[in-house]
Write a structure and sequence with these properties.
The complex is a heterodimer. By secondary structure, chain A is α+β, with helices and mostly antiparallel strands. Helices cover 34% and strands 18% of the residues of chain A. Chain B is α+β, with helices and mostly antiparallel strands. Chain B has a 4-stranded antiparallel sheet with strand order 1-2-3-4. In chain B, a hairpin with a 7-residue loop joins strand 8 and strand 9 (343-347). In chain B, helix 5 packs antiparallel against helix 15 (366-376), helix 6 (143-163) runs antiparallel to helix 7 and helix 7 packs antiparallel against helix 12 (271-295). Classes of the chains: A alpha+beta, B alpha+beta. The interface between A and B is large, with 32 and 40 residues.
Chain lengths: 195, 385
C-alpha cells in the first residue's frame, strides 16, 4: 500500500516522542546554563602552568627549557628565559621563565606541549568559558593567568595528577636521601685501598 | 543570477531541446545551506535540468601539506585531525601508518586493537551523521539528523573520555596510541555498541521503506561501475556501484585479517544504494567492534622504542593508506633524514569522489543535485586541505 512506509516511520517518531518522557536514553538534552553535563576527566582545552606551594611565581615547576615552545605545532607559546636561577623540583638550580605567554586564540589544544615537557610543568586545563570582547590582549594569557596550583590539577584530572605526583616524589626521593643519612664511607674505601 | 556564457556543448543541448529557452547559470554556495561546507557549484540550468556543473573549491584551503613539510612528524598529527573533522581518528591512523612504514616502527598488539576499536567507532558516527545530513538535504528537516546526532553524541563522549577531545582527538602516535583506555571505558563502549543495532533498526524503519525517500533517491545520480573505477572513486561510493573493493579486505592493514565481516555491495549505484551501503556498513562495523572488544589483549599500548621528540626516519618514501569512512585515505611521505618530511601529500577520498559529481548530476533536476552531493559524503576540510 502506498504510504505504508511513511506511516511506519511516523510510528517510529511517535515512539521516540513519547519515549522521551520515560527514557533518559531518548532525551539527552541538557539545559546548559542551568544544568551541566558531568565533567569528563580526560577532557582538555588549553594549557596551564602548575605551581607547588602557595606562591604562584616562586612555585612554578617550569624551568624555561623552551622544549614546549619549540615543539608547539602552531607556535602559540612565547617564553623568555630568566637571567638568574632558582631551585627546581629536585633541588637543582635552574632558570625560570621571566615571561611565559600562551596565545589561546592560536592554540589548538593538541596537548603536545604536555607530552614533551620533562618537568610536568605544563598541563591541560578544562575551563572552557573564556569568552572575551577583545581577541588580541584578552586571549594572550601571561604567566600570572596561566599559573594554577597543583591542587587545581588534582581537582580536574585526579588520576593523571596522582601519577605525576608519584613520579615526582620518586624523582625527589632519588635525589634527597643521599645527604641526610651519611653512610660511613670510610670502611669501604680503606678496604678498597688495602686491596 | 545572470545569463551565462556557456561552452559550446551546453549551448548545443539547450538549442536542441528548445531553441527559445535560455540557459540560466546559478551559483550555489559557498554559503549555501546544502553544500556541506564552503563548496560552490556553478550550475547551468535548462529549466529544472542541469546541463553543466562546475565544482569550485578552495574556500577552506589552509595549506595543510606545506605546513606539514615545515613541521616535525609529530607536529602534523594534530593537523591531520582537521582534514576530515568528522573522523579525526581515522586520519590519525592513516598518517601514523605512513610514518610507521617510513620508519619501520612495529605496533604492539594492544595498540592495533585500540586502533580498530576507535576507528570503527569513527565509522559508526560518520555514517550515522551522513545519513542524517542526507535526509536533511532531502527536506526531512531535523528528525533523522537529530536521531543520528543523539547516537553520535554517545560515541563522542567515549572519544572525550579516552582522548580528551570530542572531535580533534589527536589519538594515534607512531608505534601505537597516545594513552591507554581509562577505567570503565570498555564497559561503557560495550554498552554503546550493544545499543547501536537497536538504533539502526529504528532508523531503517523510519527511513528505508519511506515512499518519499524511495521516490527521491532511486535511480537518481547513477554512477556507472566503469566510470567509478576510472575516476578512482573509493569507499562506499564505489561499493554502491557493485565493485568489491574494501581496503580492509584488500590490504588487510593492521589486524583486519582477524575479523570476520562482510563487505556490503550495491547494485544500481544510485543515491538509494549509497544510503543503504552506509546502513549495512554500520552493522558490519558493530560486528567488528564486538569481536575486537572481546579479543582485546593486555600489553603495552605504544612501542616504547619510538621517541616522541627528535624523531628522524631514515631517507626514503612511504605511502600508507586505510579504508577511512569516506574511502581510501592515503598519506605519501618522503623523508630526507631531517626531523620534518621533505614531501607530504594527502590523498583525500572526498576530493576524488567529488570529481564525478558533474557526471552524476547531468540531466537531473536541480533539487536532486543537492541530494547527490549529500550522498557523496564530502567534508570540505579534506577536499581543500
Amino acid at each position: 500500500m502506498l504510504g505504508e512506509g511513511i506511516l511506519k516511520g511516523l510510528a517510529e517518531t511517535a515512539r521516540n516522542f513519547f519515549g522521551s518522557y520515560v527514557s533518559k536514553d531518548r532525551l539527552t538534552t541538557i539545559q546548559f546554563p542551568e544544568e551541566r553535563a558531568p565533567r569528563i576527566e580526560a577532557s582538555r582545552n588549553f594549557p596551564f602552568l602548575v605551581y607547588d606551594g602557595t606562591d604562584p611565581m616562586a612555585g612554578l615547576r617550569c624551568v624555561s627549557c623552551l622544549i614546549c615552545e619549540k615543539e608547539c605545532p602552531p607556535k602559540c607559546i612565547f617564553i623568555e628565559k630568566s637571567t638568574d636561577k632558582k631551585p627546581d623540583a629536585v633541588g637543582k638550580p635552574q632558570f625560570y621563565p621571566s615571561k611565559f605567554n600562551i596565545d589561546v586564540s592560536v592554540c589548538m589544544s593538541c596537548q603536545i606541549c604536555v607530552e614533551v615537557c620533562p618537568f610536568d610543568a605544563i598541563k591541560m586545563d578544562n575551563a572552557f568559558e573564556l569568552s572575551a570582547t577583545d581577541r588580541f590582549d584578552a586571549l594572550l594569557f601571561n604567566k600570572q593567568q596561566l599559573a594554577k596550583p597543583n591542587e587545581y590539577y588534582h581537582e580536574i584530572h585526579p588520576t593523571e595528577a596522582a601519577e605525576v605526583d608519584a613520579a615526582l616524589a620518586a624523582a625527589r626521593a632519588k635525589v634527597a636521601p643521599k645527604p641526610p643519612p651519611p653512610p660511613p664511607p670510610a670502611p669501604p674505601t680503606t678496604e678498597a685501598a688495602a686491596q | 543570477m545572470t545569463t551565462a556564457t556557456l561552452p559550446p556543448s551546453a549551448t548545443l543541448i539547450s538549442q536542441s531541446a528548445d531553441s527559445d529557452t535560455q540557459l540560466l547559470e546559478v551559483s550555489m554556495g559557498p554559503q549555501h545551506p546544502s553544500t556541506h561546507g564552503v563548496f560552490r557549484m556553478d550550475v547551468a540550468l535548462d529549466g529544472e535540468h542541469v546541463v553543466k556543473l562546475k565544482p569550485i573549491f578552495g574556500y577552506l584551503h589552509r595549506n595543510h601539506e606545506k605546513i606539514a613539510e615545515n613541521e616535525t612528524y609529530l607536529g602534523s598529527m594534530p593537523y591531520t585531525d582537521r582534514l576530515d573533522y568528522f573522523c579525526s581518528i581515522t586520519n590519525n591512523w592513516a598518517y601514523a601508518l605512513a610514518v610507521e612504514k617510513l620508519a619501520g616502527v612495529v605496533v604492539p598488539e594492544r595498540a592495533e586493537y585500540l586502533r580498530v576499536i576507535t576507528g570503527e567507532l569513527t565509522r559508526l558516527q560518520n555514517h550515522a551523521s551522513l545519513v542524517g545530513f542526507l535526509m536533511q538535504d532531502m527536506g526531512a528537516s531535523g528528525t533523522p539528523l537529530m536521531y543520528a546526532f543523539r547516537e553520535r553524541e554517545k560515541i563522542l563522549d567515549l572519544f572525550e573520555a579516552l582522548t580528551g577531545a570530542r572531535m580533534m582527538c589527536n589519538y594515534m602516535r607512531f608505534g601505537g596510541c597516545r594513552c591507554d583506555l581509562p577505567e570503565g571505558w570498555l564497559a561503557q563502549a560495550k554498552q554503546v555498541v550493544d545499543a547501536f543495532p537497536r538504533f539502526l533498526d529504528e532508523f531503517e524503519r523510519l527511513l528505508s521503506g519511506n515512499e518519499i525517500i524511495m521516490a527521491r533517491t532511486q535511480g537518481v545520480g547513477v554512477l556507472s561501475k566503469e566510470l567509478a573505477i576510472n575516476a578512482g572513486v573509493t569507499g562506499p561510493m564505489l561499493r554502491a556501484c557493485g565493485v568489491n573493493y574494501d581496503l580492509r579486505k584488500v590490504d588487510k592493514y593492521g589486524i583486519y585479517d582477524r575479523f570476520n565481516f562482510r563487505v556490503p555491495l550495491g547494485e544500481h549505484g544510485d543515491v538509494y544504494d549509497r544510503y543503504m551501503i552506509r546502513l549495512l556498513e554500520m552493522r558490519e562495523s558493530v560486528g567488528i567492534l564486538r569481536q575486537a572488544m572481546r579479543d582485546l589483549p593486555e600489553g603495552p599500548f605504544t612501542d616504547p622504542k619510538t621517541k616522541v621528540r627528535n624523531f628522524r626516519p631514515k631517507p626514503g618514501e612511504a605511502y600508507g593508506r586505510i579504508e577511512a569512512p569516506k574511502g581510501e585515505l592515503g598519506f605519501y611521505l618522503i623523508s630526507d633524514g631531517t626531523p620534518n618530511p621533505y614531501r607530504y601529500r594527502v590523498r583525500p577520498p572526498s576530493l576524488i569522489n567529488l570529481t564525478v559529481l558533474e557526471d552524476m548530476c547531468l540531466g537531473q533536476n536541480i533539487a536532486d543535485v543537492v541530494i547527490i552531493l549529500g550522498s557523496v559524503d564530502i567534508v570540505m576540510g579534506e577536499v581543500d586541505r
